[in-house]
Amino acid sequence: MARPCPTGRHDEHNVYAENCPCRALLDLISNKWSALVIGMLDERSAVRFSELQAALPGVGSKMLTQTLRRLEAASLVERSVYAEVPPRVEYTLSELGRSAAVPLGQIRAWAEEHIDQVEFLNRKWSEQN
């Protein structure tokens, strides 16, 4: 699955190679909270922190903050600060983030469609609830 690096910074891009920086990106986008944040931002134009947190039950403020910062650092999310009182901050997907939203949306849909076939997770979920 190796691909030549178009920027010339590496010989190739190969997520199976131990030292390939693609692994860090794969780690970021395969994270549960990253995938859910990207999905929420894909469904809405601009979202405030409190709206994201309300739409994602179970995510704490610290985890959401860390996730948004990582996604922003990777250029997947854009953060806009408006000079108002109190200051208003909104998050949107960048063009790069919108391209990641497509396969992540397919993964979320696959999970919803096939969860009933995954017995181990069903048992674990039942034990917790």
Automatic annotation (TrEMBL):
Transmembrane segments: none annotated. GO terms for molecular function: DNA binding; hydrolase activity. It comes from Mycolicibacterium fortuitum subsp. fortuitum DSM 46621 = ATCC 6841 = JCM 6387. InterPro entries: HTH_HxlR (IPR002577), WH-like_DNA-bd_sf (IPR036388), WH_DNA-bd_sf (IPR036390). PROSITE patterns: HTH_HXLR. Coiled coil: none annotated. Residues 20-119 form the HTH hxlR-type domain. SUPFAM superfamilies: Winged helix' DNA-binding domain. Keywords: DNA-binding, Hydrolase, Transcription, Transcription regulation. This is Cinnamoyl ester hydrolase. It comes from the Bacteria.
